[in-house]
Write a structure and sequence with these properties.
- The structure is a single chain.
- This protein is of the alpha/beta class.
- It has a domain of 152 residues: P-loop containing nucleotide triphosphate hydrolases (Rossmann fold), CATH 3.40.50.
- The chain is 52% helix and 14% strand.
- The chain contains 10 helices and 7 strands.
- The strands form 2 sheets. Strands 3-4-2-5-6 form a 5-stranded parallel sheet, sandwiched between helices. A two-stranded antiparallel sheet has the order 1-7.
- The longest helix has 28 residues.
């Protein structure tokens, strides 16, 4: 997408943050939070909507059966993840059940932060932003993609989740190629290098975003 023409209003800047599995998006989100951004965390909301009593819990159990439920009554997220990453139809089924609830809660949180701003910049941290939606329903002013090369991502994923390289490759392949997301980004953070290099890029991005925060996109622009 292209950053739209800006005009002065009082609304905080609304930025989408995404990447690929193990590209380091959460690291960048944490750094932006530390610098002062308000974060709307899609992963946290996803956990909220599927917990027992949550709006998507019964739908997931109905779609995947008792094997999706752990001994404590909560969803067995690890087993469910292994299943849906190995089965595209199952992944689509899970997304169809959970994503409407996640999007609604994200929109509600975005509206709350807009009405009572905690920061001039709201970052919507959404792993599947460019896989399942373009964020148009969130009225984003721009998209940041966190990039890391496939070799780096595979190493991180196997170390982080304790899975085989074959399983890691399946999880990477289950998402839209990261290079395609980069083409649609307004800003890119390359997280293939050192932590210090990534932090320097995040600080430059934050300076850009805060400079833009006094101006807003024209409606319909």
């Amino acid at each position: 997408m292209s950053v739209r023409p800006l005009a002065r209003t009082g609304r905080p800047l609304r930025i989408g943050l995404t990447g690929g599995v193990a590209s380091g998006k959460s690291t960048v989100a944490s750094a932006l939070r530390a610098l002062g951004a308000a974060i709307v965390d899609a992963d946290a909301i996803a956990r909220e909507v599927v917990r027992p009593g949550g709006p998507a819990y019964q739908g997931v159990v109905a779609a995947f059966g008792p094997s999706a439920v752990g001994p404590d009554g909560a969803l067995d997220r690890k087993a469910l993840a292994a299943h849906v990453f190995a089965d595209e139809a199952a992944r689509r089924r899970l997304n169809a059940v959970t994503h409407p609830h996640i999007r609604r809660r994200m929109a509600e949180e975005g509206a709350r932060l807009t009405a009572s701003p905690e920061s001039p910049v709201i970052v919507f941290d959404i792993p599947l932003l460019l896989d399942t939606t373009d964020g148009r329903d969130l009225d984003l002013d721009g998209i940041v993609v966190v990039y890391a090369d496939d070799g780096t991502r595979l190493r991180r994923l196997t170390a982080r989740d304790g899975i085989s390289e074959d399983e890691a490759r399946r999880r990477v392949a289950a998402q839209v190629p990261l290079e395609d997301k980069v083409k649609r980004a307004d800003w890119v953070i390359d997280n293939s290098g050192t932590a210090a290099e990534t932090q320097a890029q995040v600080k430059r991005l934050w300076q850009t975003l805060t400079e833009r925060a006094g101006t807003r996109p024209e409606s319909g622009g």
